[in-house]
Structure formats: C-alpha cells, structure tokens
Amino acid sequence: MYALILPASTPFVLLATVLGLSWWEDRILPTPEPVEALIEDLLAPAPLPDSLNSPVSRQR
C-alpha cells in the first residue's frame, strides 16, 4: 500500500515546493529596483576616463 502512496503523492509534493518557493520569492526576498531605473542606467552614456578627457599633445 505504501508503494502506491509515494508515486501518487510526488506531483503534489513538487507542486507544494514550487508554490512555497514562489511565495518565498514574493514575500521574503528584497524588492529589486524598478526596471525603468535599470534601463536608464543602461542607456546613459558611460563617463570617459580622465586620460581621454585631457587634450593630447602631438609630438612631431
């Protein structure tokens, strides 16, 4: 009888695990930054290094 219970309950155990992890992700983990802020950071031009900002003197 126990040999039939284990295979029959496996999908429900997996479902409960996925639902529990989903709840944990929504309730416990910190909220990430808004997507708009991340997109603005990606689209902003990167600052140039100081070596590229200074004028280059050419030697002849």
Protein model, in words:
The protein is 65% helix and 0% strand. It has helices at 2-27, 35-43, 50-53. The chain is rod-shaped. The mean pLDDT is 79.
What is the CA-atom radius of gyration, in angstroms?
28 Å
What count of helical segments does DSSP give? 3
Strand percent estimate: under 5%
Rounded mean pLDDT is 79
Would you report the number of β strands? 0
| Order of helical and strand elements | HHH
| Secondary-structure class | mainly alpha
Q: Gap between N and C termini, in Å?
A: 93 Å
Q: Unreliable runs, pLDDT <50, ≥5 residues? A: none
Sheet with most strands? none
Principal-axis shape? rod-shaped
Helical content class: 55-70%
Q: What is this structure's SSE topology?
A:
Layout: H1 2-27, H2 35-43, H3 50-53
In short:
With 60 residues, the protein is an all-alpha fold. 65% of the residues lie in helices and 0% in strands.
Please give a handful of descriptors for the protein shown.
mainly alpha; single chain
